[in-house]
Design goal:
It is a single chain. 38% of the residues lie in helices and 14% in strands. It is an alpha/beta fold. It is globular, with a radius of gyration of 25 Å.
């Protein structure tokens, strides 16, 4: 029978929303919702179907405890309302869904996050899921991440996509980001605003444009070496402030590279020269208009040319001039940078990582379904977990949901073990008790994580390519990756699929995982040549992502026949 929920300290809009989310997840899994009752007066101590929510600010920050009370009933106590939401996530993940009823699990104890900064960054561009999916689907996904313990939501209103601040498309885009930020705030995720230190619109005047720093660059970034250029940069930051000030952002993240920067003689090296000089003017604007916000200084890609920028930044911090920023964001495409690993914590600054969980090793990113690569991320987090205060995961879509969940556990527990959270994930997201087979599957799929074969498909004939038997696609037989163990992964997932409840088998998380294993096995058996079955799988993935066959770019779009007909790969 359905249980009951009691607010020991009274209800609030936040807690009522948390219970709504809890009940919606029960409904998604075929279980009846739990009713909210005024108090515990009439509780049956032997029933074991009541959940009492209580606040206790003496608990560790953001921590919660789960304990038995009144016989077999459960008391969830949180240090804050957000902590109670995290506790509800734990209760969902450790419970069981069977026969239309949700049964509370056996986990008892007290836990709190080891790392205070746990940011989910949605890269809402290229017409990916975050950019174009129905907003209610993205909002529900934000709620899911809050249940796993993420406490900040980051997005970027990337100005280079728009002609100017009066571009009608920009107005609609800002409105969309607002709605998503509001969803995040309603589940305790502080708004985090990302922007380049020298960001510009597409119409940046030619004489004010920055010099290419030999990193990712759109050519409309602004050089701050003249007063006119600096004034334009400040004007562009005032636009960002005007868009989001009403949301009371908690972190502003100012970026150096990818894209960004300037390599003119007055600005180079950008990361420890032009960017620092510009930040001394930019940061006070955010301090003034986003009261109490923290400023994050991004060092992403500082390692491209050795360590002079890192050393210059360290010297700047030691000089006592760096009070205008609070956080240093550090990471790279491959290993965690050597300089901060060797140096350790910077005085007076929190250090966070920026794990690239979406793009590594696959093109299109997620174009063939789920992309779990957990042992790789465990190794990388192990390089900095003792010196970092958390991190900001970089996400291009929902295909790396498993990677997000692993990092949620990394940040919560402080270590780099992922197996326990994946056991919970398996039971909660799939209603599956075969957790060890699931962990085996994840490792099999990681061994198969090479997948650049889609770059070797084109609707245009090329030397060395031959016509595929499926649709109007040419492919390069020499470009076939090594799908190690693809057949093993397919057999494993078929065995798991047979035992899943209908609600899990039809859910997008399972479909993306199964389709990934299916495509790998089909391509491995056919020397990398796409087949009609591959095409059907890609069409389903594109539908899950809400891919636009015309506007979605090659980076994020599955290589469906419809997409290929609208694009010519260069």
């Amino acid at each position: 029978m359905p249980g009951t929920i009691i607010f020991a300290n009274g209800s609030s809009d936040f807690l009522l929303n948390a219970v709504r989310i809890f009940n919606q997840r029960l409904s998604d899994r075929g279980c009846a919702p739990w009713a909210v009752v005024p108090d515990a007066t009439d509780l049956d101590p032997a029933a074991g179907n009541a959940l009492i929510l209580a606040l206790d600010p003496t608990l560790p920050a953001e921590g919660f405890s789960i304990a038995e009370t009144l016989g077999k009933n459960i008391r969830l106590t949180g240090a804050s309302a957000s902590a109670l939401l995290y506790g509800l996530g734990k209760i969902l993940r450790t419970g069981s869904f069977s026969g239309g009823d949700f049964a509370l699990g056996t986990w008892r104890g007290t836990t709190a996050p080891a790392k205070p900064i746990r940011i989910a960054y949605f890269a809402s561009h290229f017409y990916n899921f975050y950019h174009v999916a129905p907003i209610e689907k993205v909002a529900k996904y934000i709620e899911d991440l809050a249940l796993y313990g993420y406490n900040y939501l980051a997005m970027w209103a990337d100005k280079h996509h728009f002609e100017s601040d009066s571009d009608p498309a920009l107005t609609a885009f800002i409105a969309r980001l607002h709605e998503l930020y509001k969803t995040g705030k309603a589940v305790g995720m502080g708004p985090t605003v990302l922007t380049l230190m020298n960001e510009g619109y597409a119409n940046t005047p030619e004489h004010l444009r920055a010099t290419h720093p030999k990193r990712s660059f759109y050519g409309c970034e602004v050089c701050p070496s003249t007063q006119e250029g600096l004034d334009l940069i400040l004007k562009n930051h005032r636009d960002s402030i005007a868009w989001f000030a009403d949301l009371e952002p908690k972190i502003t993240s100012l970026w150096s590279y990818d894209q960004g920067g300037c390599a003119c003689p007055q600005c180079a090296p950008w990361g420890c020269n032009g960017m620092l000089k510009t930040g001394e003017h930019v940061a006070p604007l955010y301090r003034q208009h986003f009261p109490g916000c923290q400023i994050s200084f991004s060092t992403w890609l500082f390692d491209y040319h050795g360590e002079p920028e890192w050393q210059g930044l360290d010297d700047y911090i030691n000089s006592g001039k760096s009070d205008w920023f609070d956080i240093i964001l550090a990471d790279s495409h491959t290993e965690f940078p050597v300089f901060p690993r060797r140096r350790g914590r910077f005085p007076g600054k929190a250090l966070i990582n920026f794990p690239e969980i979406s793009m590594w090793g696959r093109t299109p990113w997620g174009g063939m379904g789920a992309s779990p690569i957990l042992d790789r991320f465990a190794r990388l987090w192990g390089q900095n977990c003792t010196i970092s205060s958390g991190g900001m995961i970089y996400s291009e879509g929902i295909f790396e949901d498993i990677n997000k969940v692993a990092y949620a556990a990394f940040y919560w527990n402080g270590n780099n073990a992922w197996e326990d959270i994946m056991r919970e994930y398996c039971r909660y997201e799939y209603g599956c008790s075969s957790t060890e087979a699931f962990i085996t599957l994840l490792r099999q799929l990681e061994r198969n994580h090479s997948g650049k074969s889609a770059l070797h498909w084109t609707p245009t004939p090329r030397p060395g390519y031959r016509k595929a038997r499926f649709a109007d696609i040419y492919f390069n037989p020499a470009g076939v990756p090594d799908y190690r163990g693809a057949e093993d992964a397919w057999r494993t997932i078929c065995g798991l699929d047979a035992g899943l409840p209908d609600w899990a088998r039809q859910a997008w998380r399972w479909r993306l995982l199964l389709l990934r294993a299916r495509i790998d096995a089909l391509l491995a058996a056919n020397n990398g040549e796409p087949t009609p079955e591959v095409g059907i799988a890609l069409d389903e993935i594109a539908a899950i992502y809400h891919t636009d066959p015309v506007r979605s770019t090659a980076a994020v779009a599955p290589m469906t026949e419809a997409w290929l007909k609208n694009h010519r790969l260069q």
